[in-house]
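Supplementary Methods, section 5.1.

A reviewer requested that the exact input to the structure prediction be made available. We therefore reproduce it here, unchanged from the version used in the analyses.
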Amino acid sequence: MFHLSLRTVYCTCLLSSHALSADLSTECNPQFYVNVADIDHLESLDSYMACTTEKIFQSKTHLYDVFVDGSEFLSPLETMSSLLKPTLWDHRRFEHLRNIRCVHMLEGGGGA
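The structure derived from this sequence is encoded token-by-token as follows.
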């Protein structure tokens, strides 16, 4: 499962590498896996993406714009609330990707 999280960080960074507009920076600084010893370092970064197994990060709201816990998206920013609500199309895309992943794993190509 740990390798799946690292792949998720990497793939999300790739997806975010496309500029949405001239005013919006989508720069991603992958940190992959972080723990409480990394908090000082994370505070010094303008942006980053990481995964962790430590629930304490959820209470450190100054460290993130979006916190993903399973299928739950959390944000301390009110302006993010409408962006974090999945649409019908988001659900359909997720289901499609999940089906692709299942087929890939059945074919022997997807160890965690």
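The chain has two domains: 2-77, 82-112. These observations are discussed further in the main text.
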